[in-house]
């Protein structure tokens, strides 16, 4: 039997995650049946579950992958810019549905919550590091602890995601982000 290349395995894994992301976003975790996953991914259950132990492992890998991508964007561009990009190009943020499903599972599944807590630390660390760098450069308020700024921005991000996912976007959201950005900047004396 010929050996499959690492590139082929990586491409197959990416294909599975991309299809699963669409399926979980469209149907939620519970509604993403194996049959729907097969249809969305374009592979048989054998091919899918050759790469992932079960549906739960597939979802967790997808959530981890999306958190890593989000952490990278947050570290390089900042969380408010990420939110601006979400408003401007929502079609490029196909992990929104996954993030909503993660929030639901964190609330309802203790085993998932335990595993997710470790993974979400990556996004938190990336955002916190950027905030610390910006604060040290004098760009952010120094009268508010950095972890409070992080909590504030996380709340805004979660609210924006819920808003976009429910289809209630409008021109005012850009102005709201202007207000958020102004509220965390250091005031000029």
UniProtKB/TrEMBL annotation:
Q: Which UniProt keywords apply?
A: DNA-binding
Residue span(s) of domain HTH tetR-type: 10-70
SUPFAM superfamilies membership: Homeodomain-like, Tetracyclin repressor-like, C-terminal domain
Q: Name one Pfam family in it.
A: TetR_N
Residues within the DNA-binding region(s): 33-52
Quote the InterPro entries the UniProt record gives.
DNA-bd_HTH_TetR-type_CS, Homeodomain-like_sf, HTH-type_TetR-like_transc_reg, HTH_TetR, Tet_transcr_reg_TetR-rel_C_sf
- Keyword ATP-binding, does the record have it? no
What is the name of this protein?
TetR/AcrR family transcriptional regulator
This protein's species is Nocardia lasii
């Amino acid at each position: 039997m010929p050996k499959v290349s690492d590139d082929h395995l990586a491409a197959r894994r990416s294909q599975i995650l991309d299809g699963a992301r669409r399926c979980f976003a469209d149907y939620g975790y519970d509604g993403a049946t194996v049959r729907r996953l097969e249809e969305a991914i374009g592979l048989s259950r054998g091919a899918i579950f050759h790469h992932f132990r079960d549906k739960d492992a597939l979802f967790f890998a997808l959530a981890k992958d999306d958190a890593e991508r989000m952490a990278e964007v947050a570290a390089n561009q900042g969380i408010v810019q990420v939110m601006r990009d979400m408003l401007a190009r929502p079609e490029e943020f196909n992990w929104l549905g996954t993030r909503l499903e993660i929030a639901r599972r964190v609330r309802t599944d203790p085993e998932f919550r335990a595993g997710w807590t470790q993974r979400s630390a990556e996004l938190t660390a990336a955002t916190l590091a950027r905030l610390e760098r910006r604060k040290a450069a004098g760009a952010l308020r120094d009268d508010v602890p950095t972890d409070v700024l992080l909590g504030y921005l996380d709340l805004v991000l979660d609210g924006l995601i819920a808003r976009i996912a429910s289809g209630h976007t409008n021109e005012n959201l850009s102005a709201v982000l202007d207000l958020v950005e102004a509220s965390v900047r250091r005031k000029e004396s």
